[in-house]
Amino acid sequence: MSDRLPIKPGPPAAAKTRLPGIFLVAALILLIAYVTYNTATGERGSSTGPAVGTPMVQFAAPLVNSALVGDVNVTQRSAGATTARAACDLSSPAILNSCQLVKRQPAALVFINSAEGRCADTLDRVIAAAAKYPGIRVAGIVIAGDRAEARRLAASHRWKIPLGEDRDGALANLYGVAVCPQTVYLRAGGVVDAVSVGESDPSALDARLSALIGPN
Known about the structure:
globular; alpha/beta; membrane; Glutaredoxin; single chain; transmembrane; 16% strand; two-stranded antiparallel ribbon; Thioredoxin-like_sf; 6 helices
């Protein structure tokens, strides 16, 4: 298989707009700076995530520990694109495919950065809490950052979950991430059940996960 994703077809206009050249670079720098600042200060007011009850944004992301290089594919199946493959149509051991993630079971999708700190610690807690619920999958998304650093982080924490790379921050933008950690709880099939911004205490986390395996 090629070392690059068959990307990047454009998503629906309402979901994502591509900026050329220097404007794209500037937008990425501002996004990283904003997430970093909010994470450091604990500011949460502007980070709300996707609306509860709405379908998730479909995506196919390169896995951090793979050799695959590329931006996240966010072409939605509902877009009706004829010249590009939708994200959920992509399948590879090197890809985190959102539709496969929630095909038959619910999932917790945790957005983090590539550094040690509360974002990585929250992913640890989500993984540990989900171990009590075998029917729930956990996946992580590393926003921008350095892939080598993300690999070291994953190795240090001994994460066995799929960990995708959002190298240009586009997926984080579509999921409304302004501060990490942000956890999006998805019902089987991909409907947003809840969103948790910032750290969750153990009882709140357990309640979120328990609700996922209840009637949907």
